[in-house]
Amino acid sequence: MKRKIYDYLLSWKEQEKGRVALLIEGARRVGKSYIVQEFAEKEYRSYILVDFSHLTDAMQNLFDNYLNDTTTFLLLLQNIVGTRLYERDSLVIFDEVQMYPKARQAIKHLVADGRYDYIETGSLIGIHEHTNGILIPSEERSIKMHPMDFEEFLWAMGDDMTMPFIRTCFEKKTPLGPMHRKAMELFRQYIIVGGMPQAVLRYSETRIFQDADVVKRDIINLYRKSVSQYAIGYSSKVKAVFDSIPAELQRHEKRFRLATVEKGARYRSYESSFLWLKDAMITNMCYGVSEPTVGMGLSFDEKTFKCYMADTGLLISLAFNEKAIQGEELYKKLMLDKLEINVGMIVENIVAQMFVANDHKLYFYSNNSRTNADERMEIDFLIEKPTITNAHNIYPIEVKSSKNYTISSLMKFSKKFNRQLSTPIVIHYQDLMEKDNILYLPIYMAPLI
Known about the structure:
Blueprint: H1 5-16, E1 21-26, H2 32-43, E2 46-51, H3 57-65, H4 70-81, E3 90-95, H5 102-113, E4 117-123, H6 124-127, E5 140-145, H7 150-156, H8 162-172, H9 179-193, H10 197-206, H11 209-230, H12 235-250, H13 267-279, E6 283-288, E7 301-309, H14 312-319, H15 328-335, H16 344-357, E8 363-367, E9 377-379, E10 381-384, E11 394-399, H17 408-416, E12 425-428, E13 433-435, E14 438-442
């Protein structure tokens, strides 16, 4: 399946020419190993894959005893694998590198050798847990890989025409017209299936939501096992937070309440659990700020946050008990927008997911004043413009999941912080329109902001 990160890998290969190794970080089952092997097969004369989750005795001995002798190490590596490496035309892949952190430290010397290119892949679950005593080389460049975005999902469905048309309409600020309904149907499928490659692949083959759901539940179980394996000493708290995410997002006020997890719980006792899930890229954190200014990352309140699932497809499978709504019935209701729940949690989660995939940091604003109605407001997302100017640098964004809604918070917020704000945006299920200096965007255009 086609992934956008492939173009980044091409650019890295052509521009760096072996001067920097690449570390691709991401959640488990997000497609890291798949895309790197595909890249190696297509772009190099030969490659060697070292999977640290399944080391043979000979490979274990090689890494334990020869990393300090680059020439001997590379010669033995080729002989053990039975693959010849060609100078400046071969790639060495360290897969699941978190299982053997010393390999990361050796990157400095391997890159200095200069004969081959190096890519590491790893889950942040282990990468951050196993770096004590390891000197992380400056010759290592880290990039993050996210679940498949809407356009990648469409590619997997054999559709390479819809998103370019959507992009053209966004740039010209014109509605899609008759194409809007088709775009929404495709986007609803994306919401339900999500962006985990195995689930997307299964759905592309069968077009049955339940088949994709089976895959997603396997991934959720894998995440639970990872918690037990890596969150040593506080795994029960991590699992409690993980399981409570759907209930928290279901609430009208989506700021995370620790009371849902444990009565009387304090943030300090659960801080490591939230950080673990964030580092593992299982969740996306959205932090509250006191005002919409450039550099929100310097002034956010780490104790005021919303916790989204990194993949909305996984959120749906986590949220709904199979005994309550069986199989395709659930998905038919989601497709027809007739599910008897607060669909806003799903819609807001997918918007957060798309923003993160587009390298946006997530922030929100909330004021629950009990004495002044003019101050009482909540803005779902605050996104910085790509180009910073002297003023009007922040997009205030409201996400609406119903046909009938109000924008009173957005109006009050725009008036209060007029100088700091760029065009207010409402993301909704309807077509694009502009009214009263507010831009209304269909939800499938969120990745273009």
